[in-house]
Amino acid sequence: MAWEDVKDILRPRNVHMGKMAVDAEKCKGCGLCVFNCVTRAWEMGENDVPHLKENYNCLSCYNCMVACPEGAISLIEPYHVDDGFWKTLPHPIPAIPPKAPLDAEGNPTGYTAVEKAILERRSVRNYKNKPVPDTLIRRVIEAGRFAPSSGNCQPWKFIVITDKAMIDEMDVLITETVAGMHNMYMHDEMVKAFEPMVAGNPTPPADPRMMIGGFGPVARREVLPSLGAPAVIMIAGDMRSIGGPLLQVGICGQNMCLAANSMGIRSCWVGFYAFLEQSPEIKKKLGLEPPWTIISSVVLGYPKFNQDGMVAREYRPVTWFRKGWDSPEIETGQ
User: DSSP string of 236-284?
Assistant: First the structure.
């Protein structure tokens, strides 16, 4: 394939980052929104009122809204792409809070404990310098070990790292790899080296949110791949597994994240650890050989401040087929 065939994937146009606003009258200048921003899009302004940087990359993740104790931050416009390969459908995707719970008869009711755990769970990226006891880490792993898998093949293997020196070593290796990829992507000529990776790939690894907003802060060493967490659980997958290991590891990891929250610790998915696949030395040290491949990781720790809460999420239309209906009902969520 020629460059023109993949240009729209690697050089997308009409990409609009999210827009957030601060109510200066409510804001107390605590700076938690700046601290909790995934892409480091915020900075403190005059009178300690934060604002988005001139060249910012907001993913509409709402981390700033969750961290704000005053409720001073609001979403003005979500991340969206007007056209081309990365076009968001529908455009723009509306952000809607969790729907009020109803019982089987359609009457208002309360959320169950499981629902609240799911709806309030957030990816935590700011941790205390406090170790997580091995006893709790083992319980988190057990939650993952008992996740469902295709044919009960259980295609996962866990590697726990609590040695700070080793975590720091991996942070350096991952940062170097991410910086190299980010610099290539941002360069108008070097980006063409990605052509073989995206040509004919139905899920090309070049989403502008990740390549610009996700890789950027790590490449600039503003964010550590480990997020400074005291414990890293790498999840390796057996490539021979039924249907492949990606879905299975995802289900397993979600069990682990929910279990961690229930114990008073917090977690975050970190996909950057998959880049360690490019280091034979590290893979040997980790004891990984084919058919085992590093799929992802979950980091654990105690949160520095409250980062939980229910927020709006993108709502794509839900299609219902009910008995006796000649055509489907499209539920927009409005």
Answer: EEETTSTT-HHHHHHHHHHHHHHHHHHTT-EEEE-GGGGGGGG-HHHHH
Whole-prediction pTM: 0.93
Task: Return the closest-CA partner of residue 293 out of 281, 276, 310, 308.
Answer: 276
User: Looking at domain 123-301, does it have CATH number 3.40.50.620?
Assistant: no
Contact criterion met (CB below 8 Å) for 192 and 184: no
Query: Which CATH number is correct for 3-97+312-331, 3.40.50.2300, 3.90.180.10, 3.40.1490.10, 3.30.70.20?
Result: 3.30.70.20
- Structural tokens at position 270: 């970190």
Residues shown for the chain: 334
Q: What is the mean pLDDT of residues 291-315?
A: 94
Phi-psi domain of 154 (left: phi exceeds 0; alpha: psi -120 through 50; beta: other):
left
End-to-end CA distance of the chain: 42
**Which residues make up the CATH 3.30.70.20 domain(s) of the chain?**
3-97+312-331
Model pLDDT, residue 333:
75
